[in-house]
């Protein structure tokens, strides 16, 4: 992503690209991942494009990071049995492809299934 271009997530937030939005508040949006890696795979995204990854978010706005984690828990409760994996890929070498901080919420659907 060039520094001057909005991230793909900013384009979703702006309504320029469709997404299956499951949560929308003043500072956070969440939508289903386009290529799910688990029965429930949501992306929880601060609307600001200011932070590239979770380390920048933690240093720059810890309250927003806490809000993001609370949102992840709320969504896991709503979409599964409440247990979830919270993943922040950090850096290209770790698989990060979108440099607009986001949390992956990965969960089984409940019903006794568990993540592999
Ligand atoms: P990363 O690899 O940066 O941790 O995660 C980026 C995630 O965004 C990937 O899991 C990818 O499937 C998802 N993704 C990329 N483009 C889109 C899109 O246009 N819509 C949605 N819903 N998810 C996307």
UniProtKB/TrEMBL annotation:
InterPro entries: Histidine_triad_HIT, HIT-like, HIT-like_sf. It holds the Pfam family HIT. Residues 8-115 form the HIT domain. SUPFAM superfamilies: HIT-like. Gene3D superfamilies: HIT-like. A motif (Histidine triad motif) lies at residues 100-104. This is Histidine triad nucleotide-binding protein.
